[in-house]
C-alpha cells in the first residue's frame, strides 16, 4: 500500500479542495477536448493530467515522475518511486475501465492470460448532476480480489466480431474494489458551473506576443 497516496484522503483541507475543484477542472478538460458540442477521446489524457497535477501539488515535482516508458502501459505516474494508474469513468456504473487498449483479439487474450495487478489505482467516477467519487484502490486490495474472483471474472475481453477498444476490469470487480474497506474514497457532488471558455484564446494571445 502506498502510504503517501492515502495522505490525499486523510488531509481534510485537500479533501475539501478536491470536492470543490475537481468538477470544475474536469469540466474545463471537457471543454478543451470538445468540438461542436461533442467531447473527443483526448479528454481522458487531459483528465489524467489534472490528477497528476494534483499529485505534484501535494507531493512536489521532484517526487512525482511523469515520464513513464511506453513499456509500462498501465502506469501513468510514479509517486516516490511507486507506480500508480489513473482511471476515469463517467456515470453511475463502474463499467468500461480499460486495463489495456488494443484492437487485436489475440493480444487481448494473451494479456488476460498473463495479467496480474501490479500498481495502485486512482479512480475518478464522474457523475454529472449527481454524486460520484475519487477513489484510491491499493495494490493489495486488487490482488486479494483478483485471487478470489479469478481472471475470467475479473477481466472482460472485447466481444468477438465487434470493434474492440480494449480489455476492461469487470464492473463487478471494480465496484467491489472501490467499496472495499482497504480502499479510500472522497464523495464528490458533480455540479457544472458556468464557464466562459474559448479554446483559441490562449493560442491567439501567444501569436500576438512580439
Q: Strand pairing plus helix content: what structural class? A: alpha+beta
Average pLDDT = 91
Distance between the termini: 51 Å
Strand residue percentage: 15-25%
- Mind telling me the C-alpha Rg? 18 Å
Approximate helicity band: 40-55%
> Total domains, how many?
1
Number of helices: 8
> What is the helix/strand order?
HHEEHEEEEHEEHHEEHEH
Strand order of the largest sheet: 3-4-5-7-8-11
Shape: globular
The CATH architecture can be given as 3-Layer(aba) Sandwich
Q: Please write the CATH class name.
A: Alpha Beta
Largest sheet: 6 strands, mixed
Sequence stretches where pLDDT stays below 50 over 5 or more residues: none
Q: What is the tally of beta strands?
A: 11
CATH topology-level name: ECO RV Endonuclease, Chain A
Structure description:
It is built from eight helices and eleven strands. By secondary structure, it is of the alpha+beta class. The chain has one domain (3-92, 118-151, 172-208): ECO RV Endonuclease, Chain A, CATH 3.40.600.30. The strands form three sheets. It has a six-stranded mixed β-sheet, with helices on both faces. The radius of gyration is 18 Å and the shape is globular. The N and C termini lie far apart (51 Å). The model has no long low-confidence stretch (mean pLDDT 91).
Amino acid at each position: 500500500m502506498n502510504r503517501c497516496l492515502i495522505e490525499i484522503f486523510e488531509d481534510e483541507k485537500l479533501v475539501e479542495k478536491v470536492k470543490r475543484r475537481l468538477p470544475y477542472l474536469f469540466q474545463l478538460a471537457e471543454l478543451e477536448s470538445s468540438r461542436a458540442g461533442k467531447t473527443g477521446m483526448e479528454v481522458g489524457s487531459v483528465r489524467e493530467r489534472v490528477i497528476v497535477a494534483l499529485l505534484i501539488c501535494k507531493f512536489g515535482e521532484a517526487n512525482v515522475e511523469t515520464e513513464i516508458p511506453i513499456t509500462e502501459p498501465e502506469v501513468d505516474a510514479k509517486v516516490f518511486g511507486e507506480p500508480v494508474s489513473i482511471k476515469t469513468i463517467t456515470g453511475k456504473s463502474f463499467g468500461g475501465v480499460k486495463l489495456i487498449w488494443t484492437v487485436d483479439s489475440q493480444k487481448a487474450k494473451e494479456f488476460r492470460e498473463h495479467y496480474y495487478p501490479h500498481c495502485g489505482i486512482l479512480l475518478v467516477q464522474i457523475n454529472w448532476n449527481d454524486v460520484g467519487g475519487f477513489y484510491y484502490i491499493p495494490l493489495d486490495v486488487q490482488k486479494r480480489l483478483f485471487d478470489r474472483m479469478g481472471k475470467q471474472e475479473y477481466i472482460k475481453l472485447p466481444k468477438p466480431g465487434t470493434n474492440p477498444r480494449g480489455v476492461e476490469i469487470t464492473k463487478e470487480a471494480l465496484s467491489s474494489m472501490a467499496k472495499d474497506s482497504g480502499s479510500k474514497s472522497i464523495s464528490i457532488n458533480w455540479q457544472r458551473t458556468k464557464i466562459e471558455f474559448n479554446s483559441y484564446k490562449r493560442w491567439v494571445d501567444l501569436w500576438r506576443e512580439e
